[in-house]
Amino acid sequence: MDTRSLSHFLMLADTLHFHRSSSACHISPSTLSRTIKQLEDELGVVLFIRDNRSVSLTPEGKRLQTYARESLLQWESLRSSLQSDSRDLQGELSIYCSVTASYSFLYDILSDFRREHPRIEIKLHTGDPAESIQRIKSGDEDIAIGAKPDHLPQDIAFRPITTSPLVFIAPATATHFNIPTQVHAIEEEWISVPMIVSEAGLARKRSDAWFRSLGVKPLIYAQVAGNEAIVSMVSLGFGIGVVPLIVLENSPLASNVQLLEIEPALDPFEVGMFALDKKLKHPLIQAFWSLSAKRKGILPSLNKP
Question: What is the pTM of this model?
């Protein structure tokens, strides 16, 4: 079966951007435009509203988006299921994670998976782990790695891999501000400390709650996407940050920052995999999901700074 037309349509429906979609599909924008035009002619409806500034889906386009997503998923599941009968899985598996995850614990999982399933092509995308669940819900990724939120959406499955403390870090050298020295946090020391914080995500929620419990409105110097960027800015002396310990231990800048022993401590992260619950029966996703469960017992649990 040739599913390329639906795949190309779905990519454009998800991104609403011709250049990014054509690039992701490895075709030219003109080829993508012809594909959409052929679909519109075949269906007798307009799928997209286009002008010089934006692209948006029509109501008919949204219906086809739902159909395309379900049809491609069912086709891929059937194809993989038939292949699994011969124990020779093949196809594509899209994974999203942070840069740190890609070269720490995920490296070993991917190595084992590649050895067991050499014909499965891995598409690895890196970015801010705060976006993990949204990328799964939008259908952009099959599996994502991130920290389990306090409230997990009902349609999202989670499999734990390891745990990591959430720690305060400060520049290792002299700074233009006073670094808190009291183990038991007091308001006077923290009220004027410049903070480097995440734009969103679990670390931001927990650091905000920590400051509220102290009765302090944090002095936010910068809001950044990604924990690696926080380590970088702290190492340059811009302020104090909050990051998972696993990020710090795998950072090339670890020697340029210092851990602050602060009480009360922040709750640790439970790091693991996310997937849509309804996609867990997909043979490729199931194979990766099962392999991570086998490795969970031998992965380090980072419970001590």
Answer: 0.66
Residue whose tokens read 């080829």: 31
User: Which part of the chain has CATH 3.40.190.10?
Assistant: 86-162+270-294, 166-267
Residue 96 contacts residue 140 (beta carbons within 8 Å): yes
Digitized pLDDT (tens) for each residue of the chain, 305 residues in all: 678 899 899 989 988 988 888 888 888 889 999 999 999 999 999 999 988 778 999 999 999 999 998 888 888 777 766 666 556 778 889 999 988 888 887 888 888 888 888 888 999 998 888 889 988 988 888 999 999 998 899 899 999 988 899 999 999 987 788 888 776 767 788 888 999 999 888 889 999 999 998 888 889 999 998 889 999 999 999 999 999 999 999 899 999 999 998 888 888 989 999 999 888 888 888 889 888 766 554 444 444 33
What's the CATH class of domain 86-162+270-294? alpha beta
CATH number of 3-68: 1.10.10.10
Alpha carbon of 208 to those of 42, 154, 199, 216, 259: distances in Å? 53, 25, 11, 9, 19
